[in-house]
Amino acid sequence: MIKAIIIDDEERARVNLKLLIEEFCPEVRLVAECKNLSEGVKSIRKENPELVFLDIEMPGHSGLELLDFFNDNEINFSIIFTTAYNNYAIQAFKLAAVDYLLKPINPQELIDAIALFEKKKNQLENLITLKNNLEHKDQTKIAVPVSGKIVFLDINEILYLKGEGSYTNIFKTDKTNFLVSRNLKSFEELLENSKNMMRIHKSYIANFQHIVAVSKADGGFVEFSDESQIPVSQEKLTEILELVKYLKR
Question: Which residue ranges does the record assign to the HTH LytTR-type domain (predicted)?
Answer without folding.
Answer: 142-246
